[in-house]
Write a structure and sequence with these properties.
Distance between the termini: 34 Å
Largest sheet: none
Number of helices: 13
Number of domains: 2
Number of strands: 0
Structural class: mainly alpha
Radius of gyration: 25 Å
Shape: elongated
Order of helices and strands: HHHHHHHHHHHHH
Low-confidence stretches: 69-80
Oligomer: single chain
Strand content: under 5%
Length: about 270
């Protein structure tokens, strides 16, 4: 998988650089044809200098720079979360992640190393097509945000967006309907996550024990509680259950209720 991504990034950079060269060649050909097919070295150099400030050059260079930025690793692991759906979903369990050096203290018992396994498990249980459909909904919200707003993305606003949160809720309802039928759901989830941990080197800031960290049953149980905490709060409201049932259906909300009930005790 990593090699596939590297190949894709390399190809994108090659295409961006090629677009700059092609654009310059087109300029040279156009000038040459205008001079009857004859152009000398000095004219080529002058043309290249003028090309640097041309709209075609700036557009091609901007594309190349954007490709390079996308390929470079970011200092903050959170900034690498390119998918909006995943970012919003992570927001449901943010309190379980450690701040610098605090892994294993208090409630901060879940390393970000767990995220690939968590996302992969959710995607495999609900199916890749439904997962991608709801991811696309969130990506479209981000695209509209970028089109309407200059400057950096306001991720706090994106993560509060009703459409994005609705898409995450839909994903979690489908996830609950699948995982609630597993008697060993907490142990099974912890094993799935441990089978796909992210590289410890990406998260050394979390604490000295990050390299040996693995998901245990207590962590998996807290993870599930965090993911479905918003449903628990809604169900506690007077008309909460009827509102959720209207939105997600009796079967889906029934699955969430059974899951939440099981997480109150030993699982």
């Amino acid at each position: 998988m990593g090699n596939d991504k590297t190949t894709s990034d390399d190809k994108s950079l090659e295409d961006a650089v090629a677009s700059i060269v092609d654009s310059l060649v087109d300029e040279i050909i156009a000038v040459s044809e205008g001079l009857g097919g004859s152009i000398d070295t000095a004219q080529i150099r002058n043309l290249a200098e003028n090309y640097k400030d041309s709209p075609a050059s700036k557009k091609a260079l901007e594309k190349c720079v954007n490709q390079i930025r996308a390929a470079l690793p970011q200092a903050d692991p959170k900034s690498r979360r390119q998918r909006v759906l995943e970012r919003v979903l992570i927001g449901r369990i943010e309190g379980l992640f450690p701040t610098t050096g605090d892994l294993g203290r208090g409630r901060q018992i879940v390393s970000r190393r767990a995220l690939p396994g968590l996302f992969g498990t959710i995607k495999s249980l609900i199916g890749p097509d439904p997962f991608q459909d709801h991811r696309q909904t969130c990506d479209e919200v981000l695209a509209r945000h970028r089109a309407e707003k200059d400057g950096p993305v306001d991720w706090a606003a994106i993560e509060r967006n009703p459409e994005c949160n609705g898409a995450v809720d839909e994903v979690l309802v489908m996830f609950a309907a699948q995982i609630v039928n597993r008697d060993d759901r907490v142990l099974w989830l912890s094993e799935r996550i441990n089978g796909n941990l992210a590289d410890a080197g990406e998260f050394l800031f979390e604490g000295g024990n990050v390299e040996t960290w693995s998901m245990d049953k207590a962590g998996a149980q807290m993870l599930l509680r965090g993911l479905f905490g918003s449903f628990l709060l809604k169900l506690s409201e007077p008309d909460g259950r009827s509102s959720l049932t209207e939105q997600f259906g009796e079967e889906g909300i029934g699955a969430i209720e059974r899951l939440l009930e099981s997480l109150r005790g030993r699982v």
